[in-house]
Amino acid sequence: MIQYSSCCSFASIVVLAFVTTAHGQSDRPALAAVDTSYVRDFSNRPAIRLYLSAKFNSMVVRSNEDFTDLRYRPNGNYNMGIGASYRRLTLNIGFPMPFVNNDDEAKGRTRFLDAQATLHTQRQASNLFLQVFKGYHITSHTPSRIGWDQTTSYPYRPDLIQFNIGLSSLRIVNHTRFSYRATFNQDAWQQRSQGTWLYGGYATCYVVKADSALVPARLLDEFGSTAPIAKALFVDLGPMGGYAHTFVHRTHWFLTVSGALGAGPSVQRLRLPASDGTTTRLELGPGWHAQFRAGIGYNSRYRYVGLLFNQEHIGYVLRAQNTFAWDVGNFRLMVVQRLKDRPKRLDRGLRWLKRNTALPVPGAQ
User: Fold this and answer.
1) Can you give the pTM of this predicted structure?
2) 361, 350 in Cβ contact below 8 A?
3) CA distances to 84, 152, 173, 248, 304 from 124, in Å
4) Is residue 364 part of a domain?
5) What sections of 64-111 are H helices per DSSP?
6) How many domains does the chain have?
7) What's the CATH code of the domain at 142?
8) How many CA atoms within 13 Å lie on the side-chain side of 3?
9) pLDDT tens-digit map of 153-208
């Protein structure tokens, strides 16, 4: 049985805490190589944050020429939360914002589990995501165009379910002078403009299913031979490369832009209608993966304010050159205060944990 929206924040905490703990200690020795005239490290200073966030995903079925693509979106929520970081261990707790998530009558209800985590060390930048959504509305076509008689303002499908899990990871070539953490982890300060080449890879698994075809019956003629798909499984992986740059104005004001693109094989398992019921087709086709990150704001020794964006876009080429694509991402507005004093009790606790467990503990000395 799936746990839905109430599990969103808890799952995010578990994933993020595990990832940062597992990698924190192994990255520690590399900090000595950082060029401090470009990057200042504050991971040994406690930080408290307040944030507003909006997570999103969507799926698109490409139409034939001169017709509109079919786009599905869940009815997502805006969240607010608090968090704390110390020695690369980060915990965030989020909850839905009041008075702004009350549009079920217009878009229909979506039940979901949504866990997204980012890991930014000195040398590596990684994204992890796990999503389960049930209940989507169509944003590309009106109810009258599709021919559905519903009370919602958008065409709504309570039967549509999607599941995705994936990972993308990029190596930072110029890791001594460029810091992802300064923008996205808020435990460093990029004081001078600098860029870097990126290389790495990705792996994703995506499942979508419904009681009937993803493309409504009235629109079938506008799409290709894969239009009647009612259930599909996509598994793909491949290499990826790109570039990132942080522009710094007067030491404190920053703009970070990062993009990466990859391609590789995808295994596609499609369920299609047939004369005797349904048939399952297993195919191997090309797929692609695009990633975009951006951040803008103010950073200093003790304070950080930033607006952040992160998106992963994944697509597949189906038979007859039709394509199916989906994306996952989030917006965040962050306000962070770094503290001057280090918590001695927490330091003693980390040292005790290191002595009494086999787990790597970030920063325990």
Assistant:
1) 0.82
2) yes
3) 21, 45, 9, 21, 22
4) no
5) 104-107
6) 1
7) 2.40.128
8) 9
9) 999 999 999 999 999 999 999 999 999 999 998 999 999 999 999 999 999 999 99
